[in-house]
Write a structure and sequence with these properties.
alpha/beta; N-(1-d-carboxylethyl)-l-norvaline Dehydrogenase, domain 2; two-stranded antiparallel ribbon; 8-stranded mixed beta sheet; 11 helices; Rossmann fold
Length: about 280
């Protein structure tokens, strides 16, 4: 297994594959490699502290994960997962490079959350080798994976993808290549309407989150979720889906998100989003 992109999603997918018995390589830019390795070690050490694995199992898992620059590992990989920045041109360029290196029976998967898998596949010599495998954040916890098919995807590839997702102890669901697929399309209403309620002064983010937890049975409210995923990522997905549906008003991005992005308040990863985060957690 090769995962290209060692950010939050890429690391999470790599850990899921490794813990399921796959020898996994994470590829990224040279400057990012030490941080990726440190985050993987921290994740595994936390599992040991919580009694979810032994120290020996931690060392075994660490030995099954390589962190390196370049795409040399694509030559031998059965599965190649693209998990880089959510930019269509960047993804298409990477996928073309991977196609030139991969072996004939390998499968390339993209973890895009909202971009067109069909548009990515169209730039390949063999567009049928690409499938969408949309994991959710945090990938080590969330059980669902959307398997996204294009007009070139044959039944055998879909079956392979379905069995692969099951082999890493996730729940697969087949979806068409439509903007936002299933979950992110539904989630736009969850986020956008909540932003409207706050912007119109009807309730505060804290009140909305508390109501959704207590009244709706959600594990976290929309603003807590946006902070966890990343305000910038949520905003980008909303913009993509809004444009893809020809500026359908119900998907319209909100200025509050734009202001938070402009301020660099991107959520937990920057220590401040809708909420501030310190050593004691959310404030």
């Amino acid at each position: 297994m090769l995962v290209v992109g060692g950010g939050t999603m890429g690391r999470g997918i790599a850990m899921v594959c490794s813990l399921s018995g796959y020898r996994t390589t994470v590829s990224d830019l040279p400057d990012a490699l030490p941080g990726i390795r440190a985050e993987i070690e921290k994740f595994l050490a936390d599992r040991v502290k919580k009694g979810k694995m032994s120290a020996a199992e931690m060392q075994e898992s660490l030995s099954s994960i390589r962190v390196e620059g370049g795409l040399d590992a694509a030559v031998d990989a059965d599965w190649i997962m693209e998990a880089i920045v959510e930019n269509l041109d960047a993804k298409k360029a990477l996928l073309a490079g991977l196609e030139n290196r991969m072996k004939g029976d390998a499968v390339i998967a993209t973890n895009t959350s909202s971009l067109s898998v069909t548009a990515m596949a169209a730039g390949l010599r063999n567009p049928g080798c690409l499938v969408g495998l949309h994991f959710f954040n945090p990938a080590t916890v969330m059980p669902l994976v959307e398997i996204v098919r294009t007009c070139w995807t044959d039944e055998n590839l879909l079956k392979r993808a379905f069995e692969f997702v099951k082999s890493i102890r996730k729940f697969p669901v087949h979806v068409k290549d439509t903007p936002g697929f299933i979950v992110n399309r539904i989630a736009r209403s969850f986020a956008v309407e909540s932003l409207k309620i706050v912007t119109e002064g009807i309730a505060s983010p804290h009140q909305v989150d508390r109501i959704m937890r207590l009244g709706g049975g959600f594990k976290m409210g929309p603003f807590e979720l946006m902070d966890m995923v990343g305000i910038d990522i949520n905003f980008s997905v909303t913009q993509t889906i809004f444009r893809a549906f020809f500026e359908e008003p119900r998907f319209r991005p909100q200025l509050l998100q734009q202001e938070l992005v402009n301020a660099g308040r991107l959520g937990r990863k920057t220590g401040h989003g809708v909420y501030a985060y310190g050593t004691g957690g959310k404030q």
